[in-house]
Amino acid sequence: MGDTLEFNNIHTEVKGSWNDGRLRFGKQSVVYKSHKTGKVDSIPAPELSAAQWRRVCLGHGIKLATGSGDVYRYDGFRDTDFEKISVFFKANYKVELAEKDMCVKGWNWGTAKFTGSLLSFDVSDSPVFEIPLSSVSQCATGKNEVTVEFHQNDDAEVSLMEVRFYVPPNTGDDGSDPVEAFAQNVLSKADVIQATGDAVCIFKELQCLTPRGRYDIRIYPSFLHLHGKTFDYKIPYTTVLRLFLLPHKDQRQMFFVISLDPPIKQGQTRYHFLILLFSKDEELSLALNMSEDEVQKRYEGKLSKNMSGPLYEIVSRVMKALVNRKITVPGNFKGHSGSQCITCAYKASSGLVYPLERGFIYVHKPPVHLRFEEISCVNFARGTTTTRSFDFEIETKQNNQYTFSNIEREEYGKLFDFVNAKKLNIKNRGFKEGMKGADGYSDSDEDQHDAYLERMKEEGKIREEGDGSDGSEGDSDESFNPGEEDDDVPEEYDSNASESDSEADDADSEDEGKKKKPEKKPKKVVKEKKERKPRKEVRYISYISISHE
Question: Between residues 201 and 542, which one has the greater pLDDT?
Answer without folding.
Answer: 201
